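Lesson 9: reading folded outputs for more than one chain in a single document. The general rule is that every protein is listed as its sequence immediately followed by its C-alpha cells, and records are never interleaved. Here is the first one.
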Amino acid sequence: MSNQLSVMERGELCELEDVIGRGLETFVEVGNALLVIRDRRLYREAGDSFDTYCRDRWQFSKAQAQRLISAAQVIGEISEADSVPMGTKTPLAASTTRILPMSERQAREVAKAPAGTRAKVWKEAVETAPRDANGTPKLTAKHVEKVVARRKQPDKPDDDPPPKAPAANPVPVDQEGHSLPTNADIRAAFAAAALLDQLMHYISRAKSLMKEIDARAVALVDRQKFEADVSNARSELSDARPYALCPYCLAAGRKDCQGCNGRGWVKQRTWKAAPEDMRDRVGAKFREVAA
C-alpha cells in the first residue's frame, strides 16, 4: 500500500483528527477515531508507525492511545448487549435504560475483565452500586474494579447466577407507594421518570467534570454561569419529576383539576402542599404497596 493517502482518505483523516483535536471531547469519540486511524493506516503519511503518529501528532504515549481505544471498544461491547435495569426506590421497574461508563477510567476497569464477560461485569457493577436518593446508581471506577476482581476469583463463575423468581404480578407504584391505575398515560409518565433520574445524574456529573478540567482548556467558558445553568437545569427537572397520583382529582386526570391540569399525577411540591385529608384519600383508593 502506498504511503500517500487518497483524497477520500485524507478527508476522512481530517474529520477524525478534528474529533481528537476538539480537546478530547469524549473518550469514546477519541478512542473510536484513533481506532479507525490505526486500523486503516491513515497515519502512514505522517510516520512509519501508529505509535510515532500518536507521539508526534498528539503527544500520546502508546499506552495512552491503547487505553482510549480499549475504552471505546468496551463501550461498544456493552452497548451491543441488553440494556440493564435502572434502579428505583419503588417496585416500578417497567422501564429500562442503558447505563454506560461515564469516564475512561471506568471503562478501563471493565476492559480488565475477560473478553466476552465485560457486558456482564458492567451489568453487575450497575446492579450492585450504591444508590442516591433518587435510586440512581452511584458508579465509581473503584466499585467497578472490585466487581472485576470478584469475577476473576476461581470460585466465581463467569456466568450470571440464576435470576431470582420475579414477584407475582408486580404492581407499578408512585413515589409514595400507591398502586398506579391502569391509565396508560399515567403509567408511561412514571415509567419514564427513571430516564429523568439518569439525566439529572449526568447533569450533576457535568458540573463535577467541569471542575476537573484544566482551566486552560475552558478559558472561554464562564464557569460561574455554566455551573449556575447546570444547577438550574437539574433543579427544574427535579421539580417537574412525576411524584404521586393527584390528590385533588384522585388521578382522574380532569382537565379542570387545579392540581394536575389533566395529567393525573403531581410533582412532589404539589403533593406536599395538598391537604392531608386529600392525600389520605389517595392512599385509601389506591392500595399502598410496602417498599
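And here is the second record, again sequence then C-alpha cells.
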Amino acid sequence: MTNIVDCSASVADIQSGTTYQGNLRGTQFQYWRLFVNDSQAQQLFVEVDRNARTPAALPTIMIQKDGWPTEETNLGIVRDINTPSQHWELIVNSPTLTSGDWIIGVQGSLDQLFNYTIMAPICDCPRCCSGNGYCQDALPRDYCVCNPGYGGTADCSNPTVELTPLTPINLTVDAHGGSRFFRVDVPNDVAIAHTDLYVGAVRQGAADDGIRLYAAPGRFPTESDYWYISQLPDGPNARIVVPHADLYQAIWYFGVFNYASTSVAVVTQMDYEGWCPCVSGQGTCTEASPTVCSCKSGWQGAACDVKTGSSGTDGVEVGAVVAMVFIFLGVGFLFGVFIKHKKPGLCERGSPDVHDSITNEEL
C-alpha cells in the first residue's frame, strides 16, 4: 500500500448526504473522511457510482474506523474482479457504527481511468429509505414510509408496477428470494359486480426452483404477512384468485418471489373473471341476479354495451315505424276494397240513386 506509506493519496473531508466527485488513474488510492458524531445513528450508507466515460476500470472500495482501510484491515469491502459494475454499496450498521472518523478508501485498477461519484449519508432508517420515502420516528426503531410507487422492502428500494387487465408485464426478479411488486386498483363497479380478480405469473426459461405469488390488500405482502399465496409447491407458474367477496378492498398488492439460485424473467398479468357479462364501467350485476346487467344511464343491451340512441338502436326504431306505416296502409287498402265490394254506390260521386237508396233503407 505505497500510497499510504508515502502519503501520496489525497484525503478529503465529506459531509453526510452530500455527493462528491472522485477520479483515479491506475492503482492509485483516494480517501474520504466522514466524522460521525451521532451516537444514535443506525446506519452509514456509502454509495459509489461509475462515471459512464470510464467503463472499464475495476475498482475496490473499503471502509475503516479511525484508520486507513486495507484489503486485510477493514469493516467492509467491495470490488470488481472481472466484470465492471456500475454501482457499489458499503453499509455499516449499529452497533458497529460508532462516533469517530470513518475513512472510505477507493482504489483504481491497472492502466485505467476511473471517474466516480461518492455519497455517504448517516441514516436512522435502512439505506436512508433509498431516497424513495422518509424515516418515521418510532420505538423500538425508526422505519421507512415509502413514497407512492415504492415499497415491499424496509428500505423503499423496490418500485411497484401498475397492473391493468390483459396487459402482460415482463420484469426480472433477483435470485435467492428476490421480489418484485405490483399494484391493482379495483374499480368500484368491478368490486360490486361479483367478479373475481385473477393474477398469474409465468417464469421464462429453465428453472431449478420456482416462483411464488403473495397478495395483500392495501399493503405489500411478505412471506409472513399476506392474505393469499399461490399453490405450493413452487413451480414455473404461479396463480392467485382473489374472490369477489374480498374486492371491497380497493387496492391490492401482489409480490412475485424468486427462490431460484439465478435471477429470472417473469411475465405477470391480471384480469377479472366471473359470471357477470357487463362491460366494465357501463353496468353491474347484483347478488340476486348475477347474470343480469343493470345498466348505467346512457347504456343498454344484455351486456350494457350499446349506447342509448346509438345508430344501431335508431335503425331498429326506424324500421319498426316504417313497418307500422306499411301495415296501416295495407289495412286501409283492404278496407277500401271491402267497402267498394259491399256498397259500390258509395264510391260513385253525383249519382242520384245513392241518396235515394240510403233514404229508403233508413225509412
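What the second record shows: The first strand starts at residue 10 and ends at 14.
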